[in-house]
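// run 5 | inverse folding | seed 20
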């Protein structure tokens, strides 16, 4: 897996209204460069093209490799640089299966390997018999529902890349905040994979544009969020529009009562897979710094100067505080982006795209950015504002240490946060330690990890 390139960050000269703040760019790779889950889902009818509807549509890759019988097809693969970082035992403790063991088409295997996925993870080994066959037959229609627009774009891009050698596969992302007319035009043709947020897909169904009566599979990614009070009514409406005979896949790092209630109502003899022996991620080292509210910015500046940050995500509890903090960070001389739900969609898309591509080291955000977002280069998460719920805390710190890699989570704790800190420790069965004067770089900096890719037993 390739990481975001940080050697020469380029900060675009945009107004601060679009989430990209300007500040002097500090060199990466040393002090002053301040600033998972193991669950993989496989997403698609409803009817367009192989474009990602993100305001800047681009065609999906098409099959361009002709494989003849007897060819050593693996020699022709365009593989990303090998990821030599250490990984924790929760993602390395596999049965030793290979992707070839699942009778997948060669064209699909090519896309998988070119993503940098060498072997199935533990959860993929368990899920493969029930969901992998879908990927072999793309006249089979499915919908993937996710809670945020950014996650929809991420999942759709992965689907496009994985299926790029399977000529004719159509993938579409559809989310709120984008032009509804564009979606209607795309739905003039059959789409094999649709990744959608709940409100938009329901809107398209009610308008008679999205024909979902033949959808055989629906995937709920981040199911705990989708079945919370924010979305559950829409999810009930959506399921009522689908055929009675369809497969439902739920993926979640947590399993609240809302998910259990949904399962009891809509799933017949469900097959449950649970590989989470603990809620907190094994590779994430957690610390807290006890500060007053007025000391937070100074503490953050100190962290920037002392930590070796590749990329960081900094969480605040409100959109207003996100923008204020991003402005403070830029005034300190560090470039940063910010993102929250009240921004215009095209600005959110650009911030998300540019941060994923390594154009900035720091991102300030709300909990909009907690769910499923996978940016391999993020090695530090900072809770500038401490969350009230253990579930929120778990998803926030999970933005570092992705897929068993090592990361750092630092929490700025005020007097008013002390009971939440204790409560979250008890709820998650974890220990958040006081921050030491010096943090061992081997806990979160890739260059200090073993280059053999050996696992770390934490």
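// decoded
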């Amino acid at each position: 897996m390739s990481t975001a390139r940080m050697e020469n960050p380029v900060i675009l000269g945009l107004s601060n209204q679009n989430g990209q703040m300007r500040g002097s760019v500090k060199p990466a790779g040393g002090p002053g460069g301040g600033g998972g889950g193991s669950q993989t889902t496989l997403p698609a009818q409803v009817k367009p093209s192989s474009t990602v509807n993100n305001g800047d549509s681009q065609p999906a890759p098409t099959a361009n490799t002709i494989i003849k019988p007897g060819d050593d097809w693996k020699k022709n693969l365009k593989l990303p640089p090998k990821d030599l970082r250490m990984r924790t035992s929760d993602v390395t403790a596999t049965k030793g299966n290979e992707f070839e063991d699942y009778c997948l088409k060669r064209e699909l295997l090519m896309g998988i390997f070119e993503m940098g996925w060498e072997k199935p993870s533990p959860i993929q080994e368990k899920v493969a018999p029930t969901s992998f066959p879908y990927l072999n037959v793309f006249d089979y229609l499915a919908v993937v529902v996710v809670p945020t627009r950014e996650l929809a774009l991420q999942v759709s891009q992965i689907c496009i890349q994985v299926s790029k050698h399977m000529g004719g596969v159509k993938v579409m992302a559809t989310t709120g905040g984008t032009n509804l007319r564009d979606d209607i035009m795309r739905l003039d043709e059959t789409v094999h994979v649709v990744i959608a947020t709940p409100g938009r897909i329901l809107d398209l169904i009610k308008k008679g544009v999205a024909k979902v009566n033949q959808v055989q599979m629906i995937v709920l990614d981040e199911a705990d969020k989708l079945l919370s009070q924010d979305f559950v009514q829409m999810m009930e409406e959506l399921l009522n529009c689908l055929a009675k005979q369809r497969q439902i896949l739920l993926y979640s790092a947590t399993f609240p009562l809302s998910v259990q209630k949904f399962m009891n109502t809509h799933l017949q003899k469900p097959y449950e897979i649970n590989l989470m022996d603990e809620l907190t991620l094994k590779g994430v080292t957690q610390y807290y710094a006890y500060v007053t509210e007025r000391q937070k910015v100074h503490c953050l500046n100190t962290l920037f100067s002392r930590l070796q940050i590749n990329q960081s995500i900094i969480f605040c509890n409100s959109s207003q505080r996100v923008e204020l903090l991003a402005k403070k960070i830029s005034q300190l001389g560090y470039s940063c982006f910010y993102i929250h739900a009240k921004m215009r969609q095209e600005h959110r898309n650009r911030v998300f795209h540019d941060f994923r591509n390594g154009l900035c080291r720091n991102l300030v955000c709300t909990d909009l950015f907690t769910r499923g977002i996978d940016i391999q280069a993020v090695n530090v998460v900072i809770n500038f504002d401490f969350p009230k719920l253990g579930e929120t805390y778990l998803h926030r710190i999970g933005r570092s240490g992705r897929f068993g890699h090592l990361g750092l989570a630092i929490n700025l704790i005020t007097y008013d946060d002390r009971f939440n800190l204790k409560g979250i420790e008890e709820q998650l069965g974890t220990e958040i330690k006081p921050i030491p004067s010096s943090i061992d770089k081997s806990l979160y900096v890739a260059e200090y990890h073993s280059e053999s890719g050996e696992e770390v037993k934490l």
